[in-house]
C-alpha cells in the first residue's frame, strides 16, 4: 500500500528526531522538512502542508518547554493532531436505520471504481447483519450490468437491472433502457422484499459533463435517495478538490468513498483535498477484491499511518476475517487481556486461510512493518507455518501456559518439530510480543454485530 510509504517516511522522520541527543530547533526543522517532503510527494496541497508545519512550530515552542517535559511526545502528538486536522472531512449527517429501507445512490466518473464499490459497500453491510440489494441503473457503460450481476451473485446479494440497449439490439432482446425507470422499478422491487439497504449504481461518464449531471439529477429526483455517495479515484490527488466540489454542486452528496488507495502515491493528497471540501469520507477502497474496503475514521487512520496501531479497527477486522462461531470467544478473551499460544495458533490458521494478512496486522501498533513486511507476504506465511509446526509438537499444557516453558521443554519441541532451538525461542519471543500488544485490548468495548454507528 503506497500510503504505508507515506506513513513510513513520517514515522522515520519522527524516529530520527527521537534518536537525537538534544532536540533543538535544527533537529525539529529537519524533522518537519522530512515530513513536508513526504506529504508533498503524496500530492497534499502545499498550503495545507505549510499551515501544518507553522502550527506545529507554534505549539512546540522549544524554548518555552520546561526542562523535563517530554519534547518528543509533544512533537509527535502535534504531528498526529495536525494530520488529523488536515484529513478530517467532518461527520456524515445521515446514518442507516435498521427496520427502515434506505436508498443509497452511488455517483462518480466512469472508471472511478463505482460499480466495484457498490458491491463492496453492500457486502460490508451484509456482513454486519443488514439486508442489502443492488440496482444497476448504469445504462451508459456496456457491461456495467453484467459486472454488477457477477459481483452480486458472488456475494449472494439480490440485484436488479437490464442489459443496455445496444447490447439488447445485438442480442435481439427487448429491454428497458431508461435509467430512471430501471432505478425506480428496482427500488420498488426491493422495498417490497423488505431489503433495508437499497443501493443504486448510476451511470458514469469519462469526464464531468452536462449529460451525466442531468441523468444523476433525474435518478435522484425519482428515487429520492436517503444518501448520495460520491465515488472518487484517489490517483487524481489534489485535483479531487474540484471534482468533489463539482459533484456536490449538482447533487446532494452526503458522503464520499475514495478508491484505489492501495496503488497510488497521491492517496494522501486526494484524502486531504476531499476533506478540504468538507465532504465526509466514509470508506476507502484498498484493492480490487470485495473485502479490500475499510471504514474511514480519521484518528485510527492517522494512528495506523504513523505505526501507532488501531485497536478498534482491529476488532472490526477480526469480525470480518475470523469465522463467525469463533468470534465471541476470541473477542471475549482478548478483551479480558488473555492471549494464549492456542489463540495465536488459531489466528495464524485463520489468517492463512483468509488471505489478507496485511490488513489485520497493520492494525497492530508497531507490528506491521516487522511481522508483515511490505511485499513479503509469502515469507511471512512460511514463517507462520513454521511456527505452527512447532506449536503442533507442544503438549496442551505447554500450549496454554507458555510460562512453564523450560529449557528441556524447548528442546523437546525443537526435536519434535524438526526445527532448531533458536527457532523455537524466536517463536516464543514472537508470542510474547503479540501477547503484549493484545494486552492493550483489555477492557476494550466490543461492538456487537449489526451495531452500526458508521454508514
Ligand atoms: P466504474 O466505471 O466507476 O463502475 O468502475 P469499476 O467498478 O468498473 O472499476 C474500474 C476498475 O478499478 C476495475 O478494474 C476495478 O477492479 C478497479 N478498482 C475499483 N476499486 C479499486 C480499489 O480500491 N483498488 C484497486 N486497485 N482497484 C480498484
What features would you highlight for this structure?
455 residues; alpha/beta; 21 helices; 55% helix; 9% strand; globular; binds guanosine-5'-diphosphate
Helix content, binned percent: 40-55%
List low-pLDDT spans. Answer: 449-455
Order of helices and strands: HHHHEHEHEHHEHEHEHEEHHHHHHHHHH
Q: How many E-type strands?
A: 8
Cofactors, ions, other ligands:
guanosine-5'-diphosphate
Please state the CA-atom Rg, rounded to the nearest Å. 25 Å
Mean pLDDT: 80
Question: Could you tell me the strand content as a percent range?
Answer: 5-15%
Envelope shape: globular
Structural class: alpha/beta
Largest sheet: 8 strands, mixed
Count of helical segments?
21
Strand order of the largest sheet: 3-2-4-1-5-6-7-8
- The span between the termini is 24 Å
Structural features, described:
- By secondary structure, the chain is an alpha/beta fold.
- It has 21 helices and eight strands.
- The radius of gyration is 25 Å and the shape is globular.
- 40% of the residues are buried.
- The structure holds guanosine-5'-diphosphate.
- Guanosine-5'-diphosphate binds next to helix 5.
- Component of a signal recognition particle (SRP) complex that consists of a 7SL RNA molecule of 300 nucleotides and six protein subunits: SRP72, SRP68, SRP54, SRP19, SRP14 and SRP9.
Quick structural summary:
The chain is α/β, with parallel strands linked by helices and 455 residues long. The protein has helices at residues 2-19, 25-41, 46-59, 71-87, 114-127, 144-154, 165-171, 179-192, 210-223, 240-250, 267-276, 298-305, 311-321, 327-335, 341-354, 357-361, 368-371, 377-392, 396-400, 407-417, 421-439, and strands at 102-108, 132-137, 159-161, 197-202, 227-233, 255-259, 281-285, 293-295. It is built from 21 helices and 8 strands.
Amino acid at each position: 500500500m503506497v500510503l504505508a510509504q507515506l506513513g513510513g517516511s513520517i514515522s522515520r522522520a519522527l524516529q530520527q528526531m527521537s534518536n537525537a541527543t538534544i532536540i533543538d530547533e535544527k533537529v525539529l526543522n529537519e524533522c518537519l522538512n522530512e515530513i513536508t517532503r513526504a506529504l508533498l510527494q503524496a500530492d497534499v496541497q502545499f498550503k495545507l502542508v505549510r499551515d501544518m508545519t507553522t502550527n506545529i512550530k507554534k505549539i512546540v515552542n522549544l524554548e518555552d518547554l520546561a526542562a523535563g517535559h517530554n519534547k518528543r511526545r509533544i512533537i509527535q502528538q502535534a504531528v498526529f493532531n495536525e494530520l488529523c486536522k488536515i484529513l478530517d472531512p467532518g461527520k456524515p449527517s445521515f446514518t442507516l436505520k435498521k427496520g427502515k429501507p434506505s436508498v443509497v445512490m452511488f455517483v462518480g466518473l466512469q472508471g472511478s471504481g463505482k460499480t466495484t464499490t457498490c458491491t463492496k459497500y453492500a457486502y460490508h453491510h451484509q456482513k454486519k447483519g443488514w439486508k442489502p440489494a443492488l440496482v444497476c441503473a448504469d445504462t451508459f457503460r456496456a457491461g456495467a450490468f453484467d459486472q454488477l450481476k457477477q459481483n452480486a451473485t458472488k456475494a449472494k446479494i439480490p440485484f436488479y437491472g437490464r442489459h443496455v440497449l445496444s447490447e439488447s439490439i445485438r442480442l435481439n432482446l427487448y429491454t428497458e433502457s431508461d435509467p430512471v425507470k430501471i432505478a425506480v422499478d428496482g427500488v420498488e422491487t426491493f422495498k417490497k422484499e423488505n431489503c433495508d439497504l437499497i443501493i443504486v449504481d448510476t451511470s458514469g461518464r469519462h469526464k464531468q459533463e452536462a449529460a451525466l449531471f442531468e441523468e444523476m439529477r433525474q435518478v435522484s429526483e425519482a428515487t429520492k435517495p436517503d444518501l448520495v455517495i460520491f465515488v472518487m479515484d484517489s490517483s487524481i490527488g489534489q485535483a479531487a478538490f474540484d471534482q468533489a466540489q463539482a459533484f456536490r454542486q449538482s447533487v446532494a452528496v452526503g458522503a464520499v468513498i475514495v478508491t484505489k488507495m492501495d496503488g497510488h502515491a497521491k492517496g494522501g493528497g486526494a484524502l486531504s483535498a476531499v476533506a478540504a471540501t468538507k465532504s465526509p469520507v466514509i470508506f476507502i477502497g484498498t484493492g480490487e477484491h470485495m473485502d479490500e474496503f475499510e471504514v474511514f475514521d480519521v484518528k485510527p487512520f492517522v494512528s495506523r499511518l504513523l505505526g501507532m496501531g488501531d485497536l478498534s479497527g482491529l476488532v472490526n477486522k477480526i469480525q470480518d476475517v475470523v469465522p463467525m462461531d469463533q468470534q465471541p470467544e476470541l473477542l471475549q478473551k482478548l478483551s479480558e487481556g488473555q492471549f494464549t499460544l492456542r489463540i495465536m495458533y488459531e489466528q495464524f490458521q485463520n489468517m492463512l486461510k483468509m488471505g489478507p494478512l496485511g490488513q489485520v496486522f497493520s492494525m497492530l501498533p508497531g507490528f506491521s512493518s516487522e511481522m508483515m513486511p511490505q511485499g513479503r507476504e509469502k515469507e511471512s506465511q512460511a514463517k507462520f507455518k513454521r511456527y505452527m509446526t512447532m506449536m503442533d509438537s507442544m503438549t496442551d499444557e505447554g500450549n496454554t501456559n507458555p510460562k512453564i516453558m523450560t529449557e528441556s521443554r524447548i528442546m523437546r519441541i525443537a526435536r519434535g518439530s524438526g526445527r532448531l532451538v533458536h527457532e523455537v525461542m524466536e517463536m516464543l519471543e514472537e508470542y510474547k510480543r503479540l501477547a503484549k500488544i493484545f494486552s492493550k485490548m483489555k477492557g476494550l468495548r466490543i461492538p456487537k454485530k449489526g451495531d452500526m454507528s458508521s454508514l
